[in-house]
Amino acid sequence: MAHYVGLDADRAYAARAMPHARELTIDGTTGFVYEFECEFGTRYVLFAWFDGLCYKVKLVEPDFERTGPVGHATHLYADGTLCLDPQMHGLRTLADAYTRSVVWATGHSIFRTTGVFAFNVTNLDRTPAT
After folding, report:
1. What is the domain range of residue 12?
2. CA dist 99 to 25, 56, 115, Å?
3. Residue 15 lies in a domain
4. b/e string for 99-121 if b means 16 or more Cβ within 10 A?
5. Dihedral of the CA atoms 56, 61, 62, 66 (nearest 10)?
6. By the 8 A CB rule, do 33 and 21 touch?
7. FRET label pair with 101: which of 39, 44, 67, 124, CA 20 to 30 Å apart?
8. How do residues 61-88 score in pLDDT, each as one tens digit?
9. Prior bond to 62 cis, omega within 30?
10. Domain contains 127
């Protein structure tokens, strides 16, 4: 479980370290929408929030239904939430969630090209997904 540092601390981190981040409240949940272009030129828009136990990140764009399969191979749950830590189903800090989500985006872009998700220590089978 994460120790929630508070929305003010999250706002300060987002302003300092998350380019183009803006605060957004959806159905009572406050988080941060941010966008970036990964190393391969794919534009990603993500939403990070604290769910009461840990920080989670959801893929907003590109539309995950059009990016290929979801699940273990892509580290993307069916609801669009990124699998950034399988033991916790989230992360301890907004900084960790942001950093891992940017790395996830590069791995996801590589998966879309090769069928293998990069940066996956549990991915012992390097057979491309079909």
Report:
1. 7-114
2. 21, 12, 23
3. yes
4. ebbbebbbbbbbbeeeebbeeee
5. 80
6. yes
7. 124
8. 887 655 556 666 667 778 888 888 767 6
9. yes
10. no
| Structural tokens at position 60 | 């907003």
C-beta of residue 48 within 8 angstroms of C-beta of residue 97: yes
Going from the C-alpha of 68 to that of each of 1, 27, 55, 78, the distances in angstroms are 31, 28, 25, 11
| In the block, residue with structure tokens 């991915």 | 123
- Let me know if residue 2 belongs to a domain: no
Return the pLDDT at 66.
Answer: 56
Long-range contact pairs involving 33-41 (C-beta distance under 8 Å, separation at least 24):
33/60, 34/98, 35/61, 36/102, 36/105, 38/102, 38/105, 38/106, 38/109, 39/106, 39/109, 40/106, 40/109, 40/110, 40/113
**Largest Cα–Cα distance in the chain?**
45
* Domains contained in the chain, number: 1
What are phi and psi for residue 22, nearest 5 degrees?
-140, 145
